[in-house]
């Protein structure tokens, strides 16, 4: 399991971001891309006309991606203009804003940067709401341990384990019940509460399935008189929806440590521990086949193969553990959690897919 920051440090960052972020409802005529003091400036900025005058922001990578997609500018061309011809990029963006005056978007900003360009139907379910709903449930359950948490550029994560609920995959291979709670604040993912199996021998975390997934979709942003971009605050309807969703989070977190569900996961993992990785004995090919199915990078594939050979557990369970072990040394916390999900995907691969893995062989050049 990848180690992030302490819970106290993450809580402080959540509080800071809650204060520092600003969200705007903006119509296309009140948005534009500007070049700053020079027509040849290398870093264009995003400007909003608000009631207090024009405000401009640096743009983060996700914002660029979403802006390009919304305006239907091919991303490769967008990126080339951004690097080589920023004035041309600004002209393109502003032309399409002017051509669709009835367009409306949610612009999310943080620390003076525009970080998301979203549909007006985007439902704001920020990390502090998820944390405030989940943490009391975890703290009220005697013995639960928060093993890892982090607030990355875009995502919030919290991983907790309950040592009192454990089982054996093989003799001496003990796992414990856990949960992974996460949310994305910029339109790149849903709120997720996922069961986790924590492997004591190697401190790996494996996300076994998904029990709650809530997309950020809600009612459209209301019209506001004045014609300029308007900062959004939580109205009574949104507060009520937040309270309802917080109750749902609490219920799902409580159920994440359901003993019957955990015992069912143990049975699946025990079956995986008896399922050979390869019927041909070609483990290099088997790892390559898995990597192709679950989109491992070349570097990750080499790391997984090395861990598999070191562990000498040539089963589906061993393959899953090799992937989650790779997550422990991955620099990116976001990618580490994704590798934990991939480890769980290996366990539930459909028979026809797993059959292709088992029968894989390296073709001689």
The stretches of 5 or more residues where confidence is low (pLDDT under 50) are 217-226
Secondary structure class reads alpha+beta
- Helical fraction: 40-55%
How far from one another are the termini? Answer: 38 Å
Shape: globular
Using only C-alpha atoms, the radius of gyration works out to: 24 Å
**Which strand-content bin applies to the residues?**
15-25%
In total, the number of strands is 13
Number of separate helices: 12
Strand arrangement within the widest β-sheet reads 2-3-4-6-5-1-13
CATH topology of the domain at 19-118: OB fold (Dihydrolipoamide Acetyltransferase, E2P)
Known CATH architecture of the domain at 19-118 = Beta Barrel
**Biggest sheet features:** 7 strands, mixed
Key words describing this protein structure:
OB fold (Dihydrolipoamide Acetyltransferase, E2P); 6-stranded antiparallel β-sheet; 365 residues; single chain; globular; 7-stranded mixed β-sheet; 12 helices; 13 strands; alpha+beta
